[in-house]
Amino acid sequence: MPALDDYTIVDLSSGIAGAYCTKLLADGGATVIKVESPQGDPLRSWSASGAPVEPDGDGALFSFLACSKHSVVVDSGSTDDLDMLRGLLAAADAAVWSHGSAVAELDEFGPAAIADAYDHLTVTSITPFGLDGPWADKPATEFTTQAWSGGVIGLGRGAQDRAPLFVAGQIGEYLAGAYAAVATLALPAGLVDLSMLETQILCLTYYSVPFFDALGRPFRDRRRLTIPGVASAADGLVALGCGTAQQWFDLCAMVGHDEWIDEASDLSITEQANIHAEQIYEWVRENRVEDILDLSSAFRIPNAPVGNGATVTSFEQFVERGTFVSNPRDGFTQPGPPYRTSPPLLRSADPTPRLGEHTETYRSRHSIPGRRSGDATARNAISGGLPVDGIRVLDMTSFWAGPSCTHVLAMLGAEVIHVESTARPDGTRLIAGVPITEEQWWERSPIFTGLNTGKKSVTLDIRSERGVELLRELITTCDVIVENYTPRLLEQIGLDFEGVQRLRPDAIILRMPGFGLDGPWRDKPAFAYVIEDCSGITWLTGHPDQNPVEPYSVGDPNAGVHGLTALLLALEHRRKTGEGVRIEAAMVDAALNVAAEQVVEYSAHGTLLQRQGNRGPAAAPQNLYRTGELDEFGRPDDWVAIAVATDEQWAGLVAALGDPTWVTPELASADGRRRHHDLIDARLGEWCATRTGDQIVETLWAAGVPVAKVMQPHRVGDLPQLAHRGFYERVNHPVNPAARHSTVPMRMSSVSAPLHRAPAPLLGEHNREVLSGLGLSDDEIDELESQGIIGSAPAGLTIRTTKTG
């Protein structure tokens, strides 16, 4: 049976975030009852490409997101309909809520009111800034919350001679939806208040606030193109990247310039690559895509073809693995679920419901079929004190994707044992640019501390027979094993799923390979940017007259939150059956799901979505505009984001501008504004150029217009909304100064602060505690240390701390 076959969710949301949340839950077997107005969810008529949607049909994106759900029409003015909704809530397990429908705006059916009236429900609210705080009622779009998050300018996206670039494709909506699914599964009855802003900080910036607090400098102080990134080869686009110093050195060798290698350079990888950009691009232009991919794989340099809605379905990896499937109602192509499990915990997708298709079924019973109102009891997928209290997790991950998954578990109560080795510490310990002349330099990385608070660190050299023996013993004590090694490593030491099950039959193993456990790309090096490149996320990001620009941020944390969703499904299955589960949560499968709109639009309508710079399909005008201020580094690089999503917001903007004469009646409609976007951009640019960012925000927010300052990411910790909600907690550290660390993107009535109950561990800090728990004596542990099987400092490591910033 699917993991959530006895779980019922009432979906009171509108838009992508709630729809994606409940899609993930429906995939897991939950009965999702989508409550719609008589006019239907606005997504039913949505098409990013502008393709017409038939009056009795639905947009392709809606049809993808609504598979396996039920549709119930509730008229906010009908007493009978509202009684039906009350009955549904009384018998459900959870509700998902967002603004956007007449019913959701009724006081009785606001999230806090539902949580109070139905105290058995987990009620997950999705809003731009959260339900309370000084910004709770401020107008916003996904585009403006990206700007507030620091995610637009934070990782240096775009060249300095143009505006910085947001990550296109409404990516923040999907990320919020994925976190909402995690919250709905993990948290017990009560109110879950999820903020899209906080989600984007976690997924579009790289722990910039603790980095600045601990080291006194920003992660990056200027925008630079990632070289080579996406480049033009002799016969098309190809993507190459360097995430470590070693990969940069290998790239130098591959393009025939060993003389560029300077292990003592004070410049970051990005800075060095920019110096040699033209020669690197020239080498790429002289070679074919297929040859570059083959050669870079031989050099172990991350690489990928650049996918889009028209091409990604034909890539050999996805064809061989059957990654794409047909929509069960409308027949277009869509990605399958973002993870695979054994035994199967997901349902086969059922057709998307027509508007109100299930209304009479539920009206006749006034409840969930098979239940009576009041039958539901408080429950969640895990249960216990804290959501995952009592769960022991063996964390065999590094860098960002895997640790971001296990970090949420640690904050929500699990005991997480982070396995490293002295020869190969977690890579995030080494990329902060801290000189090796500093004492305990490997403990200074704020990126590592940001991802690993509350965990324990054990060092084991699994190249040794004794190290593998100890790892096996440790597995017998753990409920969950999470790993993101290359697929062949666990198989070589006999710790694939079958090997783990022999040690502990009820263990859950979550494997997070880049491209999957099989297929021709299974051993390809996988970093976030190549996952973004081949999935289509990169394709939409950038200016239309230039090559795409890698987001360089989404692939890892997106994989982490999807892996966590799958893990919660597996824990629910084990709670019911006692069985262990193998999860394969390939990073690329998670990326393909959040980029699905490109494939479904092309398959359904033959329209290839294209880059639009900072414009987008959901608002017009939508763009970045330079202010009259210099940025904090003294450069003319200070921007605001403005997005007008409705005609009412346009009227507010016009009034705030003083009803200028250039505003014609044609601009009162979204179509008219799109046709004259260049004119509007020019006039808004002139208006903003004479004002500060604060003045622009104050003026436009007062007029009901979504607007944001384009924040430097190390400054977002000072935003009053985040301070009010306690998103950052100050954490002490035995080596670093105290720093503000991000928590989870939701406030939870059932979980109290602080979520960071201990600082990130020092390397091998818990060796003695954990190994003595396996029965080893002090003398045996001392002997392991003398043999180099365990330790507390890097050893036998070619130390290259070239900065990645």
Report on this model:
GO terms for molecular function: CoA-transferase activity. This is Crotonobetainyl-CoA:carnitine CoA-transferase CaiB. Keywords: Transferase. Pfam families: CoA_transf_3. Residues 326-381 are annotated as: Disordered. This protein is of the alpha/beta class. Among the domains are: 229-314, 2-Layer Sandwich (formyl-coa transferase, domain 3); 392-593 and 747-755 and 765-786, Rossmann fold, CATH 3.40.50. Helices cover 35% and strands 13% of the residues. The strands form 6 sheets. Strands 3-2-1-4-5-6-24 form a 7-stranded mixed sheet, sandwiched between helices. Strands 12-18-17-16-13-14-15 form a 7-stranded mixed sheet, covered by helices on one side. Strands 7-8-9 form a 3-stranded antiparallel sheet, with helices on both faces. Strand 7 and strand 8 (236-240) form a beta hairpin. Helix 1 crosses helix 6, helix 6 packs parallel to helix 21 and helix 15 crosses helix 21. The chain is globular, with a radius of gyration of 26 Å.
